[in-house]
Design a protein that fits this description.
heterodimer; A: 132 residues; alpha/beta; B: alpha+beta; 6-stranded mixed sheet; 18 strands
């Protein structure tokens, strides 16, 4: 069975923990964390996570730069992206480039359930047996 | 006396008859030729009379006369007579002389038939007649020879020579007798010839005098016609125009007699009491030339300005007999003067200060506005240079640049700080332009100045106010950004951890703990709504709410709404359903954010006031042109009073306590505002204890995409969808 690695890009530590726990609860592992845009870009140049949870409001690089990088990079074509944003204006234009857009505050249950749904989809794509 | 009068009358009658019978046609060119034509006609008339007399005498004496001869000759003579009255009279005269010379027996048949010698001719009546005929014949020929030069002289001489040779042979008389006869003829003809010669000279002199007069008259007429303005002479007594040039006639002299008042004032009586003094009356009274500006009238009655000059012509007693008048049309000049006056008034009354200097910069004119601004009167400013106003705030380079610009013929525009007469400073905006003459040389400069001190102050204040407003706006934006991010982030932690605790991620909880966590979660969700509403409200208040329309799949949008709220619904044990009617639109062209806010608000509001049962979102058609989203609940409902006030800002519902979260009272107010922004309307149905239905209605016309996309208007798959 292949790995379901995930990257959480979020600068708030509490939020980060909640996201990590939710994604882990959904069956993703290992789950890595980047606390600013530059760190996220550096990480993505070396790793190919199955899922990225991205906060659009980040210090360093803008969230949509990271999103653009993921969408531009062929290696990351299969990577699913969940966007979390506090700005409803930003949510709509980015809907097309991402798999899910969540308006903050994001609840643990909500993210967990959605991440789980994505993991099932990834598993189906990879031909893995259903994890649940 | 009576006899004399009768004789005179008779003579007059004959003369008048002769005048009528010999009057030449109108196309006979001049007086001399007319005279010759008359003589020729008269000769032919006498001849015809002689011919008839001979005929009568012959018939009376009982002798036979061949009638054919009469019919043959008479028409010929009559034709020649008529010819002689035309301009071909010379041919008539020539033909008659040649005919008579060649065939005398044809014309004087009776006389010719007598036996004759020269002597018997003198003693017998028949011969008297033929002699008389010859005299009458020769006389006009001689006369013609005298009056007509060369050709007729020649004809006459030839005739005499011929006669001397021819008559003795034809009449069978000795040449001596013929010569005697001619002597006799010349005895009678000579004095007549002399008289005719004197008469001819007299005529010629008269003719040349007449020609000279005509020439002079024509010359004078040409001279006055060449004056390109009405020029005429007025009789001082009768006001009649006695002489006029071409331009004066154009003014309307149609008859021979016209008066000055009819000509230039279109009046039927002499001018009196007009605003302009009548030049004729002045000239008559003062006996001196006079010039006056006048209004005259064209033949069509249109008035025009003229300058009238009147000059008296005095008679031998020194009284004014005539007046020469000519009038110049000065309408163009008057108009130019009027224009100039208008411009002058404009400059004088201009609110801008205007200064005109010569090419060296010496002030020649300042207008009142200049004096008002600077405090310098025209007397004080004229003769000075604009240095008068220098404040010392500009360096020499500033003025040098100004002079370089305007001396190069360009317009300079700029601002000065100048000093008034009282020493105070003021800002002045100036435009200085060169003024050129016809040759393009700069002769003057004109400066238009405006005191902009007040305007500068206002602009400064406005700039400050704008900067303050921008600062405030920036602060507001920053505040909004802070609210949208920084408030939501800690809320994320609250919601997330509470949720995790409830889910047992950190170990099992007892019932009391679970209930308190519910309260935390509920409060956090309420706070999230508050934040969203505050943001929307702020956007609407600051008019920065942008409507960005796009094609929205309704089904997906409603799912998102449900997704966000069903956790809350679940917690409260309520159902949350989405229902789309088969004929409901699948896709609409709207701002998804606003539409989602409206529906989310309505749904969360419904959940708040519902204890059991649930909330249903239903999309359905209202009529052919409208569709609606209805949010219905099975909650507490509202009374009449409450329902009326439900959309007022800061209105909170009485049942608010039961939901456990206090209302801000802005939710429905914002919802209605948003719906109105999207050109929709909202309706409420409610009954206490039964629940409420909030229906948002939109027109298809307002939610159709700009280009006709069929699937955006009509549902592509009319299947019923219910989500749980």
């Amino acid at each position: 069975m292949s790995t379901y690695s995930a990257l959480i890009v979020e600068d708030d530590v509490f939020q980060t923990e909640i996201f990590v726990k939710a994604v882990e609860a959904a069956g993703f592992t290992p789950v890595d964390v980047a606390s600013d845009g530059q760190e996220a870009l550096d990480y993505l140049q070396q790793h190919t996570p199955a899922l990225v949870v991205l906060d659009l409001h980040l210090p360093g690089a803008l969230g949509d730069d990271i999103l653009a990088y993921i969408r531009r990079e062929p290696r990351l074509a299969a990577t699913r992206v969940i966007l979390a944003t506090g700005n409803p204006h930003m949510a709509d234009p980015l809907q097309e480039d991402s798999d899910l857009v969540l308006l903050k505050p994001v609840s643990f249950t909500q993210l967990r359930d959605l991440a789980m749904r994505l993991r099932r989809a990834i598993a189906a794509e990879r031909g893995d047996p259903c994890p649940d | 006396m009576g006899v004399f009068r009768w004789v005179r009358r008779g003579v007059d009658g004959i003369v008048r008859l002769a005048d009528i019978l010999t009057r030449p046609a109108a196309d006979v060119p001049n007086n001399e030729q007319q005279l010759q034509a008359r003589l020729t006609s008269a000769s032919l008339l006498i001849w015809i009379a002689a011919f008839i007399a001979e005929f009568v005498w012959w018939v009376m004496s009982g002798q036979s006369f061949p009638l054919t001869h009469l019919l043959y000759v008479m028409p010929l003579l009559v034709a020649l007579y008529f010819l002689s009255r035309t301009r071909y009279f010379l041919w008539a005269g020539l033909s008659s002389v040649v005919g008579l010379t060649a065939l005398p027996h044809l014309f004087f048949y009776a006389t010719w038939s007598q036996p004759h010698t020269a002597i018997t001719m003198l003693v017998t009546p028949a011969r008297y007649i033929i002699l008389a005929q010859l005299i009458w014949l020769i006389f006009p020929l001689l006369l013609a020879a005298m009056l007509l030069p060369t050709l007729w002289d020649l004809v006459g001489i030839l005739f005499i020579i011929h006669s001397v040779w021819w008559i003795p042979r034809v009449l069978h008389v000795p040449a001596k007798e013929v010569a005697l006869l001619y002597g006799l003829l010349w005895g009678i003809g000579g004095p007549i010839w002399l008289m005719a010669a004197i008469q001819k000279r007299h005529w010629q002199r008269l003719l040349s005098l007449q020609n000279a007069l005509t020439e002079q008259r024509d010359f004078l007429q040409t001279v006055i016609n060449s004056v390109d303005a009405p020029f005429y002479v007025i009789d001082a007594q009768t006001y009649e125009v006695v002489l006029a040039n071409h331009r004066a006639r154009e003014l309307g002299i149609e008859q021979q007699v016209s008066t000055c008042y009819a000509l230039t004032h279109r009046r039927t009586s002499p001018c009196d009491g007009l605003e302009h003094p009548c030049p004729l009356q002045y000239v008559k009274a003062h006996k001196e030339p006079f010039t006056v500006e006048h209004i005259h009238f064209t033949p069509e009655g249109r008035p025009y300005y003229v300058e009238v000059h009147g000059y008296p012509i005095l008679d031998e007693r020194g009284e004014v007999r005539f007046m020469i008048e000519y009038s110049l049309d000065i309408t163009a000049r008057k108009k130019a003067e009027e224009e100039l006056r208008k411009l002058w008034r404009a400059i004088e009354h201009s609110a801008h200060g205007i200064v005109i200097t010569d090419a060296q910069g010496v002030i020649e004119y300042v207008n009142p506005a200049f004096s008002r601004t600077t405090g310098y009167s025209p007397e004080e400013a004229i003769g000075q240079t604009p240095r008068l106003l220098r404040s010392g705030y500009h360096d020499d380079a500033f003025y040098e640049e100004l002079w370089r610009t305007i001396k190069a013929g360009q317009v300079w525009h700029g601002e000065f700080i100048n000093r008034r007469k009282d020493g105070s400073l003021y800002y002045e905006e100036q435009t200085i332009a060169p003024v050129r003459d016809q040759d393009g040389r700069i002769t003057h400069f004109i400066a238009v100045k405006q005191d902009v001190t007040e305007r500068k102050r206002l602009i400064r204040e406005l700039k400050e106010a704008k900067a303050q407003a921008e600062q405030a706006l920036a602060f507001k934006s920053a505040l909004l950004a802070t609210i949208s991010h920084d408030l939501r982030t800690p809320l994320g932690a609250i919601v997330g951890y509470t949720d995790m605790l409830q889910q047992g991620v950190f170990g099992p909880l007892n019932e009391e703990q679970k209930e308190r966590l519910d309260a935390i979660l509920s409060s956090a969700h309420y706070m999230r709504e508050l934040i969203a509403m505050l943001l929307l409200h702020a956007e609407m208040e600051s008019d920065s709410l942008k409507i960005e329309r796009k094609i929205v799949p309704l089904r997906k949008l409603l799912s998102t709404v449900r997704e966000g709220l069903w956790v809350l619904a679940q917690k409260r044990g309520l159902s949350l359903e989405v229902h789309m009617d088969p004929d409901a639109p699948e896709k609409v062209y709207m701002d998804p954010r606003l539409l989602r806010s409206v529906i989310t608000n309505l749904v969360s509001n419904a959940l708040k006031f519902t204890k059991e049962g649930g909330v249903t979102i239903r999309v359905h058609r209202v009529d052919d042109a409208h569709w609606a989203v209805a949010v219905s609940d099975t909650g507490v409902g509202m009374g009449e009073e409450e329902r009326r006030r439900i959309f007022d800002p800061f209105y909170t519902r009485s049942h608010v306590k039961m939901s456990g979260a206090p209302g801000l009272g802005l939710g429905l107010y914002i919802v209605r505002s948003l719906v109105e922004r999207m050109n929709g309307r909202i309706e409420v149905w409610s009954e206490e204890g039964k629940g409420s239905v909030f229906t948002v209605i939109f027109a298809d016309a307002d939610t159709m995409p700009p280009s006709p996309t069929a699937e955006a208007v009509h549902p592509s798959s009319p299947q019923e969808v219910t989500e749980r």
